[in-house]
Amino acid sequence: MAMTSPPANVLHGLKMAPSHALRCCKRALNWVPVLFINLVVGWSYYAYVVELCVYTIPNNAERISYLVIFHIFLAMFIWSYWKTIGSRPASPSKEFCLPRAEKDLFEREERAEAQQEILKKVARNLPVYTRTAGGAIRYCDHCQIIKPDRCHHCSTCEMCVLKMDHHCPWVNNCVGFSNYKYFVLFLAYASLYCAVICATVIQYFIKFWTKQLPDTHAKFHILFLFFVAALFFISILSLLSYHLWLVGKNRTTIEAFRAPVFTNGPDKSGFSLGFSRNVTEVFGDQAKYWIFPVFSSLGEGHSFVTRLVHIDPEQANSILQQNGKVPADGETNPCVLGNNIQHTVDDSKGKIDRGQTVSVTMESEP
């Protein structure tokens, strides 16, 4: 009896089944840190509201004031946390995809130099100023797009993320342009939430520890609640301090470890516009929205105002001389002396027309 081999599509399906199952398991496991955080918060709510406020605190005025303050910070913490989790990372628009003709040429071309020429031709019409360490146009082979400035590919999310900061397992999401403000607020309110617990629990922690209060089922919860809140407060506060420093410098975590490369070389402060403008870029220009996890960041995430690092060195020399920024020996390094210079390109469509005039303004950092 003749043996027949199974169809190719059946074999392909059999090969894909384990891969799909592993991917589903990986996605499920990615939610474990989020589940852990929610379980800790749920237990802290029970320990504080029931064991502390209901069973331990004898004074009604103190009990009510503690509950009001606790619930305000808890609500802000939960709101900002789930906004960070639920905000889909912003990805580059179709504008950064190669046109069909150039894409066909790019895929057929085997020489890296020729591929770069194709990318450079397309990039002329895009607001792209950063390069790879080797000076090439940044291109994502997986997403098949020219990467906008500050955009990076996340292997976990399997997509390019605008102004990517990092992938955070505690929120099971990429932190980038669409949710960076939410993430910073999440850290801030998490710190305040822990601080409120420590400040209000400490007196009863001491009373239980010194046996001034009788041993009850609340003792374990009160003691453990203080230790957990203090531990989380210290760890979260250190992370919050670091990200506030990044906001003030207008850097992402990736840029802090690896400086963005412009045509004139790497520059960690290439996107810094001064402390006040750096803060405004993340939190918005209306202070009334800063404390709320609502989107108020400036821009669209595809292009950013930069310092004078990509303009021709001779042009930069001329501008710096006019503003008295050139050293005595007359030698100028635009990457260093461009600290207080920035350019803006006015284009409603977000594209750069090479015929446009680049306006350069001098502005001192506070």
Automatic annotation (TrEMBL):
Record-linked InterPro entries: Palmitoyltrfase_DHHC, PFA4/ZDH16/20/ERF2-like
Enzyme class, UniProt record, top EC level: transferase
Listed GO CC annotations: membrane
Reaction it catalyzes: L-cysteinyl-[protein] + hexadecanoyl-CoA = S-hexadecanoyl-L-cysteinyl-[protein] + CoA
Membrane topology field: Multi-pass membrane protein
Subcellular location: Membrane
The entry's keywords: Acyltransferase, Membrane, Transferase, Transmembrane, Transmembrane helix
Membrane-spanning ranges: 28-48, 64-82, 182-206, 218-242
EC number(s) recorded for this UniProt protein: 2.3.1.225
Stretches assigned to the Palmitoyltransferase DHHC domain: 138-257
Record has Lyase as a keyword: no
Entry comment, domain topic: The DHHC domain is required for palmitoyltransferase activity.
PANTHER family cross-referenced by the UniProt entry: PALMITOYLTRANSFERASE ZDHHC16
Family: Belongs to the DHHC palmitoyltransferase family.
Protein's recorded name: Palmitoyltransferase
Protein source organism: Dicentrarchus labrax
